[in-house]
């Protein structure tokens, strides 16, 4: 495949093109096709943006109808019928049934812009500067959000000091015997711990970029209780793990917590269109009019596609049930792959259709498998501090046959990628 144009003209900053070096042309559901007509099964899903598949036909129809009738495409944050329909549908299908009365703030279209806004409003509301973020967390790469992103590789590109953030250990960071909530509780309770009382705690219920680290329901509940005890707004970053990825609409639902602020993006539009949302408890909605503005807030095409996605998949529990079933199926198959390599020390972790396979003693493993799988016709990404986790993120609507074919490609790639076991 000829990549000359990209290599000659596109910035060195390009990344996924290096992992998946071909020119993609069309896509449908869980399959992409490149310019040579080669098909690839998608276990990457735009890094969690395509939960409902590529070019989902129902969502596409809604968009085409809207464009055909000259519906408003760009409207800054003016009122449009598309926006009202989205707000009402989101309220009726997502917020109200889950006991949330949060306000909706539409930010610029990236996840980073949403986390940026969430951090700003928490600081505005509390008058405090410090924020607690967690080891291996990822919240975006604009300066405010980057300060809460843990990876040195990203932080080193900032060019300025990244301040006003204290990193706390995520669950399991020091192994199973260290209670990281207890550590944080001790620091917050001690007026001489050196930790400034924070404006917010920002957390992912499952760390996607950080390596599919899953927080237990108990850990999340204790974190939420600790935040409430100290009147610290809890920001739950559901940009990657939300919109049904773990089965429930929100990744924190199964823990029974209600965060003060929730950020959503990626699969929110349902179609891969740029679209982000901050959900705020009404008392935290302290913005002055225009206090966090931007030209591309509230993408009207995304309102249409997001509303179609909600109406199609979230009027009943059908999709949730299917995600949990397919997640179990994926786990079973991957457990069988692990069992076939008893000396490999492979580990599986995750929830729903967000699973990670890691070879703890072999940081190069996931990268080798990803490359080999790509040759075999599968897109699968790596994550984790050293890229040591193979990240399974198929579209939620993938059919069983395609899911299992993808796992077979991974199994074959693993076969050729395991380093011979030491005696
Ligand atoms: N937060 C989480 C949990 C993410 O996974 C990401 C992106 O991967 C972001 C924030 C940043 O989103 P964006 O890349 O759209 O800025």
Rg of Cα set: 21 Å
The strand count comes to 17
Report how far the terminal alpha carbons are from each other.
41 Å
The assigned CATH architecture of the largest domain is 3-Layer(aba) Sandwich
Helix- and strand-based class?
alpha/beta
Kindly summarize this structure in a few lines:
By secondary structure, the chain is α/β, with parallel strands linked by helices. 36% of the residues lie in helices and 15% in strands.
Description:
The protein is of the alpha/beta class and 423 residues long. The chain folds into 2 domains: 4-55 and 319-415, Aspartate Aminotransferase, domain 1; 71-313, Aspartate Aminotransferase, domain 2, CATH 3.40.640.10. The chain contains 14 helices and 17 strands. The strands form 4 sheets. A 7-stranded mixed beta sheet has the order 4-12-11-10-7-5-6. A 4-stranded mixed beta sheet has the order 1-2-3-15. A 4-stranded antiparallel beta sheet has the order 13-14-17-16. The model has no long low-confidence stretch (mean pLDDT 96). Pyridoxal-5'-phosphate is lined by residues 47, 110-112, 115, 138-140, 204, 208-209, 237, 239-240, 265.
Layout of helices and strands:
Blueprint: H1 4-9, H2 16-19, E1 24-28, E2 31-34, E3 39-42, H3 45-48, H4 57-68, H5 81-95, E4 103-106, H6 111-126, E5 131-134, H7 143-146, H8 152-155, E6 165-168, H9 180-189, E7 200-203, E8 206-207, E9 213-214, H10 217-229, E10 234-237, E11 261-264, E12 277-280, H11 300-313, H12 318-339, E13 347-351, E14 354-358, H13 365-375, E15 378-379, E16 381-383, E17 389-392, H14 400-417
Parallel strand pairs: 3-15, 5-6, 5-7, 7-10, 10-11
Antiparallel strand pairs: 1-2, 2-3, 4-12, 8-9, 11-12, 13-14, 14-17, 16-17
Pyridoxal-5'-phosphate is lined by residues 47, 110-112, 115, 138-140, 204, 208-209, 237, 239-240, 265.
């Amino acid at each position: 495949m000829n990549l000359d144009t990209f290599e000659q003209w596109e910035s060195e900053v390009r990344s996924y093109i290096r992992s998946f070096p071909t020119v993609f042309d069309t896509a449908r559901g869980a399959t992409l096709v490149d310019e040579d007509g080669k098909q690839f099964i998608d276990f990457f899903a735009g890094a969690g943006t395509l939960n409902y598949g590529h070019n989902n036909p129902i969502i596409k129809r809604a968009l085409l109808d809207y464009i055909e009738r000259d519906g408003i495409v760009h409207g800054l944050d003016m009122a449009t019928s598309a926006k009202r329909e989205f707000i009402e549908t989101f309220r009726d299908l997502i917020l109200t049934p889950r006991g949330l009365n949060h306000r909706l703030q539409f930010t610029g279209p990236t996840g980073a812009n949403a986390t940026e806004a969430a951090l700003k409003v928490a600081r505005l509301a509390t008058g405090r500067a410090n924020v607690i973020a967690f080891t291996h967390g990822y919240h975006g790469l604009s300066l405010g959000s980057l300060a809460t992103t843990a990876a040195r590789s990203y932080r080193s590109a900032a060019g300025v000091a990244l301040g006003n953030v204290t990193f706390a250990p995520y669950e399991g960071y020091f192994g199973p015997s260290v209670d990281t909530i207890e550590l944080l509780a001790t620091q917050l309770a001690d007026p001489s711990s050196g930790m400034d009382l924070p404006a917010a705690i920002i957390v992912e219920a499952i760390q996607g970029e950080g390596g599919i680290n899953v927080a237990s329901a108990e850990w999340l509940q204790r974190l939420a209780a600790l935040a409430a005890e100290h009147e610290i707004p809890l920001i739950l970053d559901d940009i990657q793990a939300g919109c049904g990825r773990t089965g429930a609409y929100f990744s924190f639902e199964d823990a029974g917590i209600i965060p003060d602020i929730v950020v959503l993006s990626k699969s929110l539009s349902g179609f891969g269109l740029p679209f982000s949302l901050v959900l705020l408890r009404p008392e935290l909605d302290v913005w002055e009019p225009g206090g966090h503005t931007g030209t591309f807030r509230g993408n009207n095409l995304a309102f249409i596609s997001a509303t179609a996605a909600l109406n199609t998949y979230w009027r009943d529990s059908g999709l949730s049930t299917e995600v949990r079933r397919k997640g179990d199926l994926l786990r079973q198959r991957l457990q069988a792959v692990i069992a076939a390599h008893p000396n490999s020390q492979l580990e599986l972790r995750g929830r729903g259709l967000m699973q990670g396979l890691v070879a703890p003693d072999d940081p190069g493993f996931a990268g080798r498998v990803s490359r080999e799988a790509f040759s075999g016709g599968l897109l699968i990404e790596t994550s984790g501090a050293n890229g040591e986790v193979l990240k399974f993120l198929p579209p939620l609507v993938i059919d069983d046959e395609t899911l299992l074919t993808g796992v077979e490609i991974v199994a074959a790639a693993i076969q050729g990628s395991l380093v011979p076991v030491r005696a």
